[in-house]
Amino acid sequence: MEAFSLIQLRSMMSTSRVLKNYKTKTLTYKLAKKILQQYQERPQPIVYYYVKEGINGII
């Protein structure tokens, strides 16, 4: 689960910024860095859309 959290953060910011701000729980710093270096895409935040459901379906 911790590796997944690291990847989520990495999708929004650079590897160096994630490593600077993230406090590892079970992973070592070295392993966290290795995991993050595998993510090659540019940082791009995940966009969420809120869909309001009405009586007759989606509004």
Properties at a glance:
59 residues, mainly alpha, two-stranded antiparallel sheet, 3 helices, elongated
List the helices and strands and how they pair.
Layout: H1 2-10, H2 15-21, H3 29-37, E1 53-54, E2 57-58
Antiparallel strand pairs: 1-2
Q: How many separate helices?
A: 3
Report the count of strand segments.
Answer: 2
Strand content: 5-15%
Net shape: elongated
Task: Explain what you see.
Helix content is 42%, strand content 7%. The chain is elongated, with a radius of gyration of 16 Å. The chain has a two-stranded antiparallel sheet. The N and C termini lie far apart (35 Å). It has 59 residues and is mainly alpha-helical. 5% of the residues are buried. The mean pLDDT is 83. The protein has one domain (2-58).
Give a brief description:
By secondary structure, the chain is mostly helical.
